[in-house]
Write a structure and sequence with these properties.
This protein is mainly alpha-helical and 79 residues long. The chain contains two helices and no strands. It has helices spanning 14-31, 55-71. The two termini are 26 Å apart.
Length: 79
């Protein structure tokens, strides 16, 4: 699990960030001679920093999105 805090308002949207990462995986898989596909699943969440916000409050929604994305991945990683 990786958490990437980002306070830059010019950052890509969640959807565009996920699409960009997916495109990079597709490009890698196209040219890679590895016998398997490289894929990833992402979950994003936004929050306003506040003294009452806990780390689990931030991670839980992103984790749910991550597992939704995992379900849609290919079942067999081999080419």
């Amino acid at each position: 699990m990786y958490l990437v805090p980002d306070t830059n308002p010019d950052t890509l949207s969640e959807e565009r960030s996920a699409q960009a990462l997916s495109l990079r995986c597709e490009e890698f898989n196209t040219f890679s001679e590895k016998p398997y596909y490289v894929e990833l699943s992402c979950g994003f969440t936004e929050f306003k920093c506040d003294k009452d916000v806990s780390l689990p409050d931030i991670i839980e929604p992103a984790d749910k999105e991550l597992y939704k994305a995992k379900i849609s991945r290919r079942k067999n990683p081999f080419k």
